[in-house]
Amino acid sequence: MGMLGLGNGLKMEFADKIRIPKLNGVTMRGPHISNTSTGTLVITGHHLIFSSRSEDVELWILNRNIDIVERKLNTITLKCKDFRIIVFDMPYIEQATSVAASIESLIMTDETDYLHHNMFSNKNNEYRSPFDVKSQCEQLVAGDSMWRISQVNKSYRVCSTYPELTVVPSNVDDTMLIASAKFRQNGRFPVLCYRHEKGSVLMRSSQPLVGSSSKRCKQDERVINSVLGPGKRGYIIDTRSVANATNAKARGGGFEMEAHYPQWRRVNSALERHNVLLDSLSKIVEACNDTTCTIERWLNKLNGSEWLSHVKDTLNAACLVAQCLNKERASVLVHGSESTDATLVLISLTQLILNPECRTIVGFESLIEREWLQAGHPFETRHKSGCYNAARSKVSSSSSSKIFHHGSGATFLLFLDCTWQIHNQFPCCFQFSTNFLSSLVDHSYCSDFSTFYGNCEADRKNNPCGKPNLWSHFDQKIDEIINPLYLHTNNVIWPSVAPFSIELWRDMYLRWSIDQTHQKKYKKSIDDLIKRNKELKILATKLRNETQESGNKST
Predict the structure, then answer these.
(1) What 3-state class would DSSP assign to 494?
(2) Minimal CA–CA distance to 501: which of 421, 417, 430?
(3) Burial letters for 72-99: b for 16+ Cβ neighbours within 10 Å, e otherwise?
(4) Which residues does residue 28 pair with via DSSP β-bridges, in sequence order?
(5) What 3-state DSSP class applies to 78?
(6) Phi-psi category of residue 294: left, alpha or beta, with phi > 0 → left and psi -120 to 50 → alpha
(7) Type and span of the H or E element at 166
């Protein structure tokens, strides 16, 4: 859509927030802009648009992609959630002040208002996904009489962050589930996530509300203990450190007491919380943006960010869970405190390691839908601000900045980074390319699609935003996300977690800092050759069969 049609084609939503809708004579530059351009800047309720006819440049930025706005005299610097830094020089200081105020007002707009009032919204549509909860649950049960689909959470009355349907043990009734929910933080009672072919199962929940008085709940014990047969043992993987899990008792939380869960062995596999991850991300992005530093300073910054250490620790924990299920044939329950962050990372990565279906495009989309969206990862809260806002909030005394940043995190990005690490080690085991992962990161922070809207299924169902789902979009872009190296295998893949095996995701963190045009062309040429080779093999097989059939007829 060309910018020339903006005057007639776009409604001016949020007109009261936009002081200057259009400004000529603006210069665009910056560390992530290859060439300086002068043209027109347009602000709408949905996008920030820069266009230069003379230099054939047009840039569209979703307002919600803008993390922070910095102004100095007549210059505005935009730092985006996708890590880009873009600088605009205005003719006058007063114009820069008005433009900066307009953009800041727009990016502070509530997500619900934003999604319900934009030029692409179609309010006759509802949020729809090809991976509805019912079909996901039916696929998980798959005729196994040990499990059933429960409607105990109908209308989200037991747990506001769970879907309405969950898979639970057949010998546990709904009254027990309600009691268990009251004993678990935010009502997140134990539910089934994955059934391994060797008979072990993977479950998740939130922490038990044991408290300092070591309370117990017999119904909760029944729910968890019923998963194990006589003589069987299981593991409870706690994503907190021993100290943090113990300290949680003083705040009303805690962990399962061994006396009440005798068949379960508790193991602490400490992973950092979402806010720590975001601070770490801000440091690694800062390091990647510093293209003039020495090698020694670069390595110090990279190490000081601790991001790759978080990636390593997370992969190590996921391998631990996978080993319990696959090699020991022991069932596993994973939880932390709320269990809407680190728990979901482990649950997802474990299935990626063990289940080849999750390495297909549809399987990976289904995994995200099931273990992130339907499982209640608070995308709206976690992605309200990005790494630049996190860095500013640490040094800013502004209370509004800290409030806006509160609750933000980088958990989902960590999961996709870990997925990239496994993909990097096993490039032939994934049907999708790493471009798919990069695109998922961007859409999770700001998107024209409804998939990552809200904090849970209840938000998306009760407040439909009338936008299409992301998975349908990827269906139309399949050639851009397919991996030509893919060879289907049913094998379990065990990623190396040795320090030298963990690499920087260059295509994510360095995509704006380094011109990767030649690398992309080189990679595309290889992909085209591989694709052509596959086509020729198929053709050769077809011709061979036709020749053989022709020979048989002649005899």
Answers:
(1) coil
(2) 421
(3) eebbbbbbbbbbbbbbbbbeeeebbbbb
(4) 37, 88
(5) strand
(6) beta
(7) strand 166-169
pLDDT in tens, 74-133: 999 999 999 999 999 999 999 999 999 999 999 887 766 655 555 444 444 445 678 999
Count the Cβ atoms, other than its own, within 10 Å of residue 433.
21
Q: How many CB atoms are closer than 10 A to CB 343?
A: 29
Mean of pLDDT values over 174-188: 98
Cα dist from 297 to 288, 303, 358, 387, 528, whole Å: 11, 10, 39, 21, 39
pLDDT of 482 higher than 60? yes
Contact 165, 175 (CB under 8 A): no
Identity of residue 200: S
Is residue 260 classed as helix, strand or coil in its secondary structure? coil
| Nearest-angstrom CA–CA distance, 333 and 347 | 9
Q: Which two tokens stand for residue 74?
A: 């007549």
Please give the model's pTM, rounded to 2 decimal places: 0.90
As a whole number of Å, the CA-based R_g of the chain is 26
Q: How far apart are CA 163 and CA 376, in angstroms?
A: 8
CA-based nearest residue to 23, from 104, 85, 90: 90
Return the H-helix or E-strand segment holding 60.
strand 57-62
Cβ pair 380, 454 in contact under 8 A: yes
Confidence of residue 518 (pLDDT cuts 50, 70, 90): low
Alpha-carbon distance values, 268 to 232, 253, 321 (Å):
20, 15, 11
